[in-house]
Amino acid sequence: MFKKILKTDDNIKIAINHYQTNHNQVIILAPGWFMTKDSSAFDSMAREFARDFDVISLDFRGHGCSSGFYTFTSKENFDLKAVVDYAKKSYSKVYLAGFSLGGALVLIHGAQFCNVDKIIAISAPDEFNKIENQFWRPEAFVPTFKKFELKRWLSVRPSLIIRKKVKPIDIVQNIKVPILFIAGKKDPTICFYHTKALYEKAI
């Protein structure tokens, strides 16, 4: 695995981990809010995927080793575009796997650019303003504290939430490639109905 810095069209530096395992297909892992490419969860996931694909994982702006401030999907489409453009120079097939707000971003990218081959959206919200985020429930805060990583927590730099955002539910039907939707019925942050609504709109 090697680390690299890419630059977005709006001049933000995006840090990636590139796991090269001699495949001609690559899967790009897009973390959600408060997660980074170097967190134990994403490092483990990348190494598992690397058995069958090359893998690129990224820090969205305002996270980890990337610059800027996180805009909760308002501008992170620039970040994902920079990574996809980089990947397409070397691979015949490019796949996206996004988690939570990263799931929203892979759907937005797929609808906007139509330049990837498959998309996996895990617990993606159908609209940012509908996210429940029931942080007071044990199902939410216990796993969060079990995954506590001081370096990751200190690296997160949010901006204002009030910026205008694309609603995945408004664009998902425009995606022309296969989409795999995954959700947990007990997810306390993004409830199952988000995924159900996205799936029904996509078909």
Notes on the structure:
- This protein is of the alpha/beta class and 203 residues long.
- The chain has a single domain (2-202), classed as Alpha/Beta hydrolase fold, catalytic domain (Rossmann fold), CATH 3.40.50.
- It contains 7 helices and 7 strands.
- The protein has helices at residues 40-49, 76-88, 101-113, 138-146, 150-155, 168-171, 192-202, and strands spanning 2-7, 13-19, 25-30, 54-58, 93-99, 118-122, 179-182.
- Strands 1-2-4-3-5-6-7 form a 7-stranded mixed sheet, with helices on both faces.
- Helix 2 (76-88) crosses helix 3.
- The chain is globular.
- The N and C termini lie far apart (37 Å).
Write the layout of secondary structure elements.
Layout: E1 2-7, E2 13-19, E3 25-30, H1 40-49, E4 54-58, H2 76-88, E5 93-99, H3 101-113, E6 118-122, H4 138-146, H5 150-155, H6 168-171, E7 179-182, H7 192-202
Helix pairs in contact: 2-3
**What is the CATH superfamily classification?**
Alpha/Beta hydrolase fold, catalytic domain
- Please tally the helical runs, counting DSSP H or I stretches of 4 or more residues: 7
Order of helices and strands: EEEHEHEHEHHHEH
What strand line-up does the widest sheet have?
1-2-4-3-5-6-7
Top-tier CATH class: Alpha Beta
